[in-house]
Amino acid sequence: MRLKSFELATQDIASVDVEALHGLSLGVEWPHRPGDWEALRALGHGFAALDEIGRVFGSAMWFPHGDECATIGMVITSPRLQAQGGGRWMMERILQQCGERRLILNSTRAAYRLYVSLGFAPQATVSQCQGYATPEAAAMPGLADAVETIAPTDLGEVAALDEAGFGAGRPLLMVQLARTAEIRGLRRGGRLVGYGARRTFGRGTVIGPVVAESEEEAVALAAALLAGLDGHFVRLDTRQEMGPLRTYLEAAGLRLFDTVRTLTRGAALPTVEPGRPGVYGLAAHALS
Known about the structure:
Blueprint (H helix, E strand, L loop, with lengths): L8 E4 L5 H10 L6 H8 L3 E6 L5 E9 L4 E9 L1 H5 L2 H13 L3 E6 L4 H6 L3 E12 L14 E4 L5 H11 L4 H10 L1 E7 L2 E11 L2 E9 L2 H12 L6 E6 L5 H8 L3 E11 L12 E4 L7
Parallel strand pairs: 4-5, 10-11
Antiparallel strand pairs: 1-2, 2-3, 3-4, 5-12, 6-11, 6-12, 7-8, 8-9, 9-10, 10-13
C-alpha cells in the first residue's frame, strides 16, 4: 500500500515479532499481552502492515470456524494509517481470504461505519463488564450445586454444546481451552446444558465462553468461575441486556466499562432464548 509519504508491505502475522504486535495494541490501549497475541495467532490467520524499516502500522486477523463461518478481529490501525484509508485496505484483503464464509466481528465506534460500508449488519451490543471481584462474587445459591469441573479430556460434550450455541464448530478453540482454561459445566437430568471457562488474559482473568440454556444457568456458571478470584481483576463480555446476568456481575464487582457492536455478513447471529443453547459470554472479541 502506497501512502502519501511512505509505502507499506504486508507480512504474515505468524512471522511478525510479537513484541511489535504488542506495541501496536498498546498504542490503541487494548489490553492484550504478548501471550494473548500468541494464543490468537495459534487460532487464526492474518497479516501486519510494516514500513520499510519494519515498524508495524496495522494488523488484521480472521479465525475460521469450519468451512462456512469465520470471525474477524485484531483489526488495528495506527492513527497515521487510519487517516489514509488503511483500515479499508486491510479489511478488503481479509475479506478476500475469508471467501464465502458467513462472518462475525465486533466493532469499536471508530470502525463501525467502515464495516457497515463493507456489507456488515448490526446485530447486538456487547457489554464489557470488568472490575475487581468482590468476596461475595461466588455466592450463588440453587443451581450452583449442579456445577461441576470439566476435565480437559472430557471436552466432547462441551464442544457439541458450544457448536449448538455459537452456530458453528470451534474445534481449535476447544483444544486451546483444554490446555489453558479452567472449565465448569452444568448438568440437568444428567445432560450437559451449560459450560463456561476462565483463563488468563489482559489485566487478569477473562471468563468466556459461557454457553447455557438460560440466563439463570449462565449466572450459576459465572459464579462458579468467579470462585477464588476475590480481589482479582476479572472481565466478562456479554450481549445480554440488563437482567439477571448483568445484575449479578455488577454485584460481583464486574461493572460496565465499555460497549462494542456485533455485526455480521451473510447470516444473522443465532438467537439466544431460554430452552436452547446460547452464547451468554464471549470467548473474546476476535473469537465471538
